[in-house]
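Supplementary Methods. Inverse-folding protocol.

Structures were first reduced to a discrete structure-token string of length 375. This string, shown here, constituted the complete conditioning input.
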């Protein structure tokens, strides 16, 4: 790193980014170095949610936003066969490449030379060795032997704007398919918001990854060693379930317990797998709530005891909450199409008992359940 920039980083550590502080650091270094250093500290602060060593890493705003959380990067790296060489086609600031390099022989490619420099710095901070080539992924791929595995996390931004059209991703996943199909493992990180039709058109195994209680990504795993299937993965717990076809009956109203499935399980269409395993029923048209008369413990579901239920009538809900001594309830919905923020205001309550209200639909009709969280 340029020594002036390094000095600016040291001088600005723990200082609020006020005009006076920036100008003090600028006097000792340069205006550019001071601006850059204060930006780095503000990005590092945000990056602490993703990286344990954030305070030593370098970022640009988009590169940080697009980067993979280190817990998920570890999961990606472990998909590849031990000892295989892996080329990361879109290294970004290097989050995935750090994990790949820790697992084995890895190299990365990045078209943005400044970001490639950040990846090199970030690898060093983590004590990981991996080559970073600056340039287009096609040239980097061409240099690789037949046996190389591939990883790609395409850019979904075009001139700062986020796109949801896979044809505009860089690289375009469809263009990679034939090369990814013929290597032993070729993994694509994509948005879980992409439609099933597109994700399935790529073939291979489809995994929806849950991290921090959110469905963070859809991973398409191609290659000659990839087992097919559709899975949900709880990355922190290292557990996986497969989407299976089972006939599951539907209850119109909640039973003694309501279970809220993890968003990745819902996205991977694994509700029938859970309902079958735990002898539960779907709750009306909720797509995500399961119900049963018995208590079940599973990392895939949050369990609630059902206090009462009804037809989504606000007056009735308010009365119930008052009688129960509830504080302002935590609202949730599956397929109810409500504006929960507005509802939250109108259900303000002064008690101290924590309660949840779940909304869902049965046909056209709105339904609710008042719940106490147990797990
Ligand atoms: C989503 S980011 C990758 C983030 C990375 N996995 C990480 O965790 O830090 C995508 C990156 O691909 C790069 N990129 C886009 N088109 C490329 C191309 N044709 N060749 C190489 N890199 C490219 C972008 O500059 C961007 O940094």
């Amino acid at each position: 790193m340029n020594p002036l920039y390094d000095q600016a980083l040291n001088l600005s550590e723990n200082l609020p980014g006020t005009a006076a502080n920036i100008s003090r650091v600028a006097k000792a270094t340069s205006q550019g170095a001071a601006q850059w250093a204060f930006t780095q500290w503000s990005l590092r602060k945000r990056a602490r949610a993703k990286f344990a060593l954030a305070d030593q890493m370098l970022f640009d705003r988009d590169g940080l936003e697009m980067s993979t959380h280190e817990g998920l990067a570890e999961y990606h790296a472990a998909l590849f066969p031990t000892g295989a060489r892996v080329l990361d086609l879109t290294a970004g600031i290097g989050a995935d490449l750090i994990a790949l390099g820790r697992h084995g022989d890895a190299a990365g490619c990045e078209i943005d030379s400044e970001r490639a420099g950040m990846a090199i710095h970030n690898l060093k901070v983590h004590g990981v060795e991996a080559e970073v080539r600056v340039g287009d992924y096609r040239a980097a791929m061409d240099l690789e032997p037949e046996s190389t595995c591939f990883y790609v996390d395409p850019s979904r931004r075009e001139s700062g704007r986020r796109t949801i059209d896979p044809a505009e991703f860089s690289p375009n996943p469809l263009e990679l398919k034939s090369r990814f199909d013929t290597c032993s493992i070729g993994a694509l990180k994509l948005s879980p918001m992409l439609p099933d039709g597109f994700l399935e058109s790529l073939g291979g195994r489809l995994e929806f990854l849950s991290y921090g209680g959110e469905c963070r990504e859809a991973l398409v795993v191609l290659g000659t060693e990839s087992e097919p299937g559709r899975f949900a993965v709880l990355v922190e717990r290292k557990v996986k379930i497969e989407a299976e076809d089972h006939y599951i009956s539907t209850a119109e109203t909640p039973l003694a317990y309501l279970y809220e499935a993890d968003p990745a399980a819902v996205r991977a269409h694994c509700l029938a797998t859970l309902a079958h395993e735990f002898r539960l029923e779907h709750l009306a048209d909720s797509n995500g709530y399961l119900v049963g008369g018995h208590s079940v413990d599973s990392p895939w579901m949050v369990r609630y005891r059902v206090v009462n239920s009804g037809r989504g009538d606000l007056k009735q809900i308010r009365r119930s909450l008052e009688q129960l001594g509830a504080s302002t309830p935590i609202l949730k919905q599956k397929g109810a199409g409500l504006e929960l923020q507005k509802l939250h205001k109108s259900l303000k309550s002064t008690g101290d008992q924590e309660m949840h209200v779940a909304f869902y639909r049965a046909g056209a009709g709105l339904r609710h359940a008042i719940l106490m969280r147990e797990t």
